[in-house]
Amino acid sequence: MMSRALLIGCCAVSPSLAAQSISLQGRVAFPLSSSQVGVAFDSTGRHRLIDRGGGVWGGLALEARVVGFSASVTGLRGGLGDSNGMFPARDGGEVSALVRYEVHPGIALETRHTTRVFVSAVGRQQWVAWGIGVLGSRKLGSEFVHASGAIEYLPVVRITGGVNPSFGIAADLALTVMPRRTPVVLSAGYRIEKFSFPYITYRAEQFEVLTLSLGVRMQRQDGRWTLTNRGGQ
Question: Residue 81 in contact with residue 91, Cβ under 8 Å?
Answer without folding.
Answer: no
